[in-house]
Amino acid sequence: MKFFVIIIYLTSLNVLPQTGIVNYGEVQSMEMGAPIGPDYRAILVFNKDNSLYVTRKDSLEGGHIREQKSYRASSNRGFTITVVTNPIGFQYYYKTKENTLFSRDLGFDYVKDNTIDIPWDITEETKMIGIYKVQKATAHFRGRDYTAWFTSQIPLPYGPWKLVGLPGLILEAYDTDKEIYWYFKNIEYPTKQAYLLKPIDNPNASWISFQDYKKNRIEKSLDAKAAGRMIAENIGSSKSNSKLKKLDGYIEAFIVEE
Predict the structure, then answer these.
(1) Could you read off the pLDDT of 227-247 as tens digits, one per residue?
(2) DSSP designation for 6
(3) Contact, 104 vs 90, CB < 8 A?
(4) What's the burial of 60, exposed, middle or buried (CB within 10 Å: 0-12/13-18/19+)?
(5) DSSP secondary structure, 226-249, as one string
(6) For residue 109, what is the enclosing H or E element?
(7) For residue 106, which of 243, 255, 232, 254 has the smallest C-alpha distance?
(8) CB under 8 Å to 15, separation ≥6 — which residues?
(9) Count of alpha carbons within 13 angstroms of residue 256, beta-carbon side
């Protein structure tokens, strides 16, 4: 009898869910001060070893999108933004054993990033998202202060975009003003779409480093400013002589010095 029970237990370990898929909404409202911008569909496909987050992809939206949309933050503040998707989308593939994130990121750069070390502060606060009990964690990461809600019911360190490293799957996350906001729609775990979890197909001979990617983003932002576009406001008080700037127009709000 004991032998029979052990066989059943070991067999059950092999049939536990291996791959899952989370559907998120991703609201991008950088520099608007509120979650009022484009609402993209996004997915996170994961197993015990890797995860792949994809957003702004034609197939997720039911076809290609390229259109001007207007949003209003208040009675006297309006924004016009180009809402656009592409056939491949932005992709972020995380390998837990190597603590390395490969991405097809802004500017369609193919980036290898092994510098992600998010200093999460896990609190005692909890709530329910669907059938999942989630717990609150906070961290400062790449220029923004984030709140993430993760569930220990799925004890895997994944989340949307580059938000990884918690002891449970992140179902909801946002920065201070929800200028970037990921919200939970549904989950399929296990999923029949395990084929979606695959490394990013890089057409280039190599990956650029995160340091080079950051440098490129800063240079392009400063070029945009020189062409008459606004970047971020000065950090600190208005009386400060500091020339530090924060690029709030990107998710990664890099600090630069002009």
Answers:
(1) 654 444 443 434 444 454 666
(2) H
(3) yes
(4) middle
(5) HTT---PPBSS-TT----EEE-TT
(6) none
(7) 254
(8) none
(9) 21
